[in-house]
Design a protein that fits this description.
By secondary structure, the protein is an alpha/beta fold. It has nine helices and eleven strands. Strand 4, helix 6 and strand 5 form a beta-alpha-beta unit. It is globular.
């Protein structure tokens, strides 16, 4: 794909999360509550037979979290494993340096040990030059990736995992919740609280990437609007992509329509370098 302006994307994401009131501060009451829920999710994950098999053969489990933000998922997984008697090493990656600074401090406090952080593109984690036992995407981050990009994410993760490694993707079935339950809305109230009323407006659709472009605005604070392009993934699409890159795929239900998708044992039939930019994207400059 064409190179992204990573600094610009990082700033855009930070503004979007701030505008939407996404719970990222682990020190806040809502952040502490979110972390408790994340710990429950990780307990369900480590109880899965694949994770149990992997952990049983290791003195140390090496964890890579992708799109980590302030590290809720990775820290919770490491804490859960340590609590069950398995040592864990944790590397958190994200495009947002400010979020990683919070993660580094908070993760050290929670785990009682140093953790690593790195500013990294999810499509290029293989360039870290290391192998991990578990790779994790937590926090429903897949809408940031269109189908072309998520294929590169899967290829990159496959290169970054050991032969019996596991890729864990936190996913919700948006095919059901967005399109079948309530329908896609041109105008949607995203969040409302005291002093905040955030709405979003449909501003276009890119058929070559499958991206819906929406503008988010706070009608009370009048902050600068943020434009985001999102792919509304369903559970089946992400699971089937995992199947192409991993020998086996399974699910862990986290409640309702939210799941962990597990990919086990990377096939490595396609390397990141094999996924060169196709002609149809070259013709449009590789831009959404």
């Amino acid at each position: 794909m064409a190179p992204m302006d990573m600094s610009g994307l990082s700033e855009e994401l930070s503004r979007a999360y701030s505008l939407l009131g996404w719970v990222e501060d682990p020190y806040s009451p809502s952040g502490k509550q979110r972390f408790e829920g994340t710990l429950r999710h990780m307990k369900l994950l480590v109880d899965h037979e694949w994770v149990k098999d992997l952990v049983s053969g290791r003195d140390v489990v090496r964890i890579l979290e992708i799109c980590s933000g302030t590290g809720f998922g990775g820290v919770a997984l490491a804490k859960t494993l340590i609590g069950e008697g398995t040592e864990a090493e944790l590397l958190l990656t994200d495009l947002r340096r400010d979020a990683l600074k919070v993660a580094e401090k908070w993760g050290r406090e929670v785990l009682g040990r140093e953790i690593e952080v790195s500013v990294a593109d999810a499509r290029e984690v293989h360039k870290l030059g290391r192998r991990f036992d578990i790779a994790l995407i937590y926090g429903l981050s897949t809408p940031h990736f269109d189908p072309w990009d998520i294929a590169r994410v899967f290829a990159s993760v496959s290169e970054a995992l050991v032969d019996d490694g596991i890729f864990v993707i936190d996913e919700a079935d948006r095919r059901y919740t967005v399109f079948l339950t309530r329908g896609y809305k041109e105008v949607l109230a995203e969040s409302a609280s005291e002093g905040r009323l955030v709405v979003s407006f449909h501003m276009g659709y890119d058929p070559l990437r499958g991206l819906c472009k929406r503008v988010f605005a706070d009608l009370i604070k009048r902050a600068e609007p943020v434009t985001l392009s999102m792919f509304l993934w369903g559970l089946a699409e992400v699971a089937s992509l995992a199947w192409l890159f991993f020998n086996d795929v399974d699910l862990v239900n986290l409640g309702g329509v939210r799941y962990f998708i597990l990919g086990r044992e990377p096939r490595r039939a396609l390397s990141p370098g094999d996924l060169r930019e196709p002609a149809l994207l070259r013709k449009i400059g590789g831009k959404a």
